Every structure is written in C-alpha cells, then in structure tokens.
Amino acid sequence: MSECESYIISSASTIREAMTKINQLGKYDRYTILFVIDEHEKLIGSVTDGDIRRAFLNDFNMDSFIGDICKKTPIIAPKGMSDESMAQLIKINQIQKLPIVDEEGRIIGVKTGEFEDTEVNNEQVAVIMAGGEGMRLRPLTENVPKPMLKVGGKPILHIIVDSLKNFGFNKFIINIRYLGHIITEYFQDGSSLNVSIEYIEEPKPMGTAGSLGLISVNSRPTEPFLVVNGDLLTTLNFKAFRDFHIAAKYDLTLCGRPYEVQIPFGYPAIEGDIVTAFREKPTFTHLVNSGIYCLTPQLIDKVPVSEYFDMPDLIREAIKDKKRVGVFPLREEFHEIGRPESYKAAEHFFNKYFLKKDEKL
After folding, report:
1. Coil, strand or helix: which one is 121?
2. For 55, which of 64, 70, 92, 144 is 20 to 30 Å away at the CA?
3. Quick one: which of 133, 163, 167 has its CA closest to 148?
4. pLDDT at residue 140 is higher than 80
5. pLDDT tens by residue, 314-324
6. What is the pLDDT of residue 356?
7. Half-sphere exposure of 35 (CA within 13 A, CB side)
C-alpha cells in the first residue's frame, strides 16, 4: 500500500496545481493519477494528465477547477478488503492505482497494481531533427550547426537528449546534414550519456519528415516514437505526451502550443444576419505546431524514400488515409530558437526552467 497523501487533490484546486503535482509525482512513479476529494475530504473522482489535456481541448484553462474536469465515480476498495481481492479488482478493471476508502468515503490508502512493466527493458525511441543550416542565425551558424549552439554552457542538442533521457527515452536517432560531423564527434554512440545514438545523414535537404524514410529496417522503432525538432527547449513531460498518444490510440499526435491572436477591431458575433454579441478587440487562442510529434512506426511507410517531405505532408497523408490524428495541448514552458534574439533569450529560459535553485547565479 502506498502513502496516499501525494495522490490526493482537492476539487477546488486548479488545473495548474494539479499539473504541478502530477509532474512531481511522475518523477518517482510511472503511473500518475490524482484522486479528487470534496470539501468533506470524501473521494469524488480521479484525474490524469490525459484528462487535463482533453479538458484544454474543451476550452478549460489553467485556472479551471479540477472538480469540473475529473472523472466521477472511480473504482474503489472498501476498508478491510483483502489484498487478494484488491489484486483481482485491479486486474479485472485494468487500473494501476486503487484507492481504499473508509466508511465515510475518505481515502485511507492507495493500492498499486503489481503489473509486469513491459516497457522497462524496451527501447524508447526519439528521432531528433538536427540537419538544418540555421540560416537565420548567421553568422553564429557559419561553423557550428544550430543544434550545437550552446545555452547554459551546453549544446542545445545535449539539453534535448538529457530532457528526453530523464523521461525514459534511451535510444536516439539523430538526423544530420549540415556540419553533421560536429554532432557525431560530440555524441558518438551515446555511451557516455548512457543512451544509444544512431545517425541518419541526409544527402540533400529533405524537409522536416523526409529523413524518416532513410531509417533502415533494422533501426526502425517497433513502438510509438517521438520526433523532435533540434532547436527547441521545453519542460514538457515527454513520457506523458507518449502515454497520451498510446491511451487515445492515435496514429499521429502533434504537440500544439497556445498562440494568441488579437483582432485590432470590434468583433460582432453573428447568427444568420443577427448580431448576438459584440466584443471590442478580442483575443483568440489557437493551438499551433510546436515541432514535437508522436508516431506509430507504420507511418514511416508513408514517407517517400529520398524525396523532400515535410511533417505537414505526412499529417495530410495520415488524415487522407483515415488514420487517427490527435493533438496534445502543450501548457508547459516552451522556447524555440530560430533567430538571434530568440537565441539570446534562450539563456534566460534555461536558467529559469532548467537549472535547480542552488545552481542559479
């Protein structure tokens, strides 16, 4: 039985507070779930990271209350139920955490399912796109590929690998082209970082997805894998992103970050030819592509060999073939490095979100 306090959250807590707790929980527990209690401390529901992401797609925000999005009537075990009976309940319902409640409906413990973790010894694969020339960052990239520019004294690509490694990814396929030898000489086979690294080298510019077609049959992932641009920094929980993709049974999931667009004029809401509301200079929020994706291995077959092919092309092909294409709303911190000013700002971003408190200057 686990200590239950870390799994409990009040229905009056915000999504922001729940995400913080889930991220903390995920550092030492693979199966993260929170059990929601009311003002009388009685269990009323449960919430996972995936529930939160789906809530964002339904116009909830970081300040929305957890009680409004949680799943009601969770499966429970009454106080006094035997370990054998609880194990059967967990197995039948295919759950990882079972809350134990007393006669008043208050949580007094959490039973963890004793599943064989089939992914512990499996390769968790991430493909990192690092072949671009970084023309907008000249002259910084005249002799250094953009992913090898340093932030916080470390190459951007190294920070990305470390971030993915922290969430269980242990095999990397790095796409290289421009000054690729600098990348291979730095990382080699990845053994110094306790990971495995292979390389695919583009003979010519092939777009943001074209190099996937160069992955050899022997190196192809056998499970859902990530594709990540090599010029970004984010505090995203990459494991939660992949778990979301698997749980929803998507074929392709893109990570979408919020982008606000303000209309500089008055905006009438219209039904037919009738104005039903009027908003002055409204702001609309849209999810835009972040350059982070999760794909099923079968989608690699959709990528033409040795041809220019962008990720939007692959997304359109998947939609045309009736594949399940989903979006994962990114609410974690994100910084893309594309221009000199954004590269300069990356130092502050790294210091604020990646350094531990005792490491900051």
Report:
1. coil
2. 92
3. 133
4. yes
5. 999 999 999 99
6. 65
7. 27
